[in-house]
Design goal:
The protein is an alpha+beta fold. Helix content is about 35%, strand content about 20%.
Length: about 150
Amino acid sequence: MTDIDNTNENILRELSQDGRISNLELADRIGLSPSACLRRVQDLERTGIITGYRATLNRTAIGTGFVAYISVGLNDHSKASQAAFERSIATAHEVRECHNVTGTIEYLLRIEVADLTAYKYFHTEVLGTLPQVNAITSYIVMSSPKDERA
C-alpha cells in the first residue's frame, strides 16, 4: 500500500481541488520535481487511492439546482428488502448519492432535480411507490457554504 505521507496528502488535496491541474503546476505547488510528482500520482492511481477524476458541475446552469437529502426508513429490515430498494434507487436518475446508514432509518439519499414540482414527482411517483419504503423525511438544501465533493 502507498504511504500517505505529507507529500502525498498535499498531492491529494491539490488534485481534489483541481483534478485538471498539470503535472508541472502540481509539482511546483508541492515542491517536487515533475518526474517525482508524476511517479507519486501514478502510484496513488495504481494502488487505488485515486480512483478517478470528475468534473464539478454547476447544477443550476444545467437545470438540476434543487437539492434535497431524504432519509428513508424501510418496512422490512431484511437483506432482500435492502437489495430490492437499492436496485430501484440505482435506476432513479434524480438520486445522486445513496448511503446505507445506521440509526433510526436505513438510507440517506441526495437528490438533484429542477424544482419543487420535479421533487414532488420524485417523492410521490418514484420513492413513494417503492413497496419497501415505510418512512420518508425530506431536508431541502437552502445553501451549501462548504461542499468538498469531487
